Amino acid sequence: MKKARIILVLILGLCLAFTVACTSEKAAPPAPESDKPPFTEMVMYTDGTPGSIGDLFIRTLGPIIEKQSGVKVVYKNISGGSGTNVMTDMMNDKKHVSVVAHSCSLPLAWATGSSPYTSDQVASVCSISTDYIVVFTRPDSPFNSWQDVVAYAKDHPGELKWGGSGVQGSQQLLHQLFMDELGIDLEYVPYDNAASVRVGVLAGDVDIGSNAFGNILTDIVGGTYKGLVVTSPERFDSAPDLETVGEAGISSAIGNSVWRAFFCPASYDQAVIEYLAKLIENAKNTDEWTKFLQNNNQVRWDLGPE
């Protein structure tokens, strides 16, 4: 428990420090002239697979940006490597102005030293939203509640497998919080992305899995998976039977969520970063975006590059 909380404090400190200042060393793209925008085309990256919540983010914001500004938006989905692959592609793209929709796993990777890039190589553009995490299982699983999982785990320590996205990311940290507070032993099995976790659960390769709520809500409501517990402080109207971690006696996980934000190479001129932030923030201040957040049980989160 103590180790997990120390990591949480470290992540929070990194996030706050990172959003306060962007790097002072700027190279490319060049500074724009005052009478015209710094670019007319941009690439929006995500490590989410098509149809995932990260994918829906960029494909919802992109058309709004195009309509508001005339800037052409190109989309790229690159998964794998616990979010490293998409970062590598963006950082190596010297031809385009690019942003990546990434999660709190990025500063966590900096904190643990598992990322090939450091915080001074990547600039914060703006925040997107936060999303609670749900633990789920396959529909024919013998587990019909989180209490069923706990009871079995106490009688069979180390036997159950929990599948989650990434190594040393937010979901592995949540797995550790659950074990520490409940005094159980669950094997964590890392997957490249949320979709792979869901496949692993259905195939029986793991007993339970964790996903951001926005990634799996429709499948839980439709009966493809059984939701066991969610980290939200209160139950969702869209899934009223889904128990919260507070009700399940896991107080350390109440409110635990995946936050997402846009990042770009720190080598960009400050004017470019500020224009990227302006485009995205303007798109966020629309009824279309507000409706998207509501429909996907997302909580708006506002932090800019300054």
UniProtKB/TrEMBL annotation:
One Pfam family assigned to this protein is: TctC
Signal among keywords? yes
Q: Which InterPro entries match?
A: BUG, Bug_dom1
Q: Which UniProt keywords apply?
A: Signal
Renumbered to this chain, the signal peptide range is: 1-27
- Keyword Kinase set for record: no
By sequence similarity, the record places it as follows: Belongs to the UPF0065 (bug) family.
Q: Tell me the PANTHER family matching this sequence.
A: TRICARBOXYLATE-BINDING PROTEIN, UPF0065 PROTEIN YFLP
Name it.
Tripartite tricarboxylate transporter substrate binding protein
Organism expressing this protein natively: Formimonas warabiya
User: Highest lineage ranks of the organism?
Assistant: Bacteria, Bacillati, Bacillota, Clostridia, Eubacteriales
